[in-house]
Design brief:
Order of helices and strands: EEEHEHEE
Number of strands: 6
CATH class: Alpha Beta
CATH architecture: 2-Layer Sandwich
Number of helices: 2
CATH topology: 60s Ribosomal Protein L30, Chain: A
Largest sheet: 4 strands, mixed
Shape: globular
Helix content: 10-25%
Number of domains: 1
Mean pLDDT: 91
Radius of gyration: 15 Å
CATH superfamily: RutC-like
Oligomer: single chain
């Protein structure tokens, strides 16, 4: 599994946009020639079809699923360049930020968070979609 070098992505946080309020970048540029990989929104549904009721368990499951999907194409969370998070309750954002940071480590992808009234299943409290980039020359 390939891991992009620290310099593979160029991040920029222009002063006019203000400092990011979390572990993300205002702008992230993938190197020319990168192959983009789009993951569908990952939801907190276990393989057996059950859905955890606890938000932290839901968020952990979503990020485990993201890591598994990336691994299937020989990528890691370090390759993520964009994250879109959908929550049904804004008060869950700090818990999600902690779990997300665990999976992303020092990576700072661009990021959008949206609070929505509902997701596809009434028990889903989170859905996350990501875009990753495989830099040129990576397997």
């Amino acid at each position: 599994m390939s891991t992009p070098p620290a310099s593979a992505f160029r991040t920029t946080n222009p002063p006019a946009l203000g400092e990011p309020l979390g572990s993300y970048s205002q702008i992230l540029e993938a190197p020319a020639g990168s192959a983009l990989v789009f993951l569908s929104g990952q939801t907190p549904r276990r393989d057996d079809g059950s859905i955890p009721s606890d938000f932290a368990q839901q968020a952990e499951l979503v990020w485990q699923r993201i890591a598994t999907a990336l691994q299937a194409v020989d990528l890691t969370p370090a390759h993520i360049c964009r994250v879109v998070t959908y929550l049904t309750d804004a008060s869950d954002a700090p818990t999600h930020a902690r779990i997300r940071s665990h999976y992303l480590g020092s990576a700072r992808p661009s990021s959008t968070g949206v609070v929505v009234p509902a997701l596809f299943h009434p028990d889903y409290r989170i859905e996350v979609e990501v875009t990753a980039a495989r830099p040129p020359g990576s397997p």
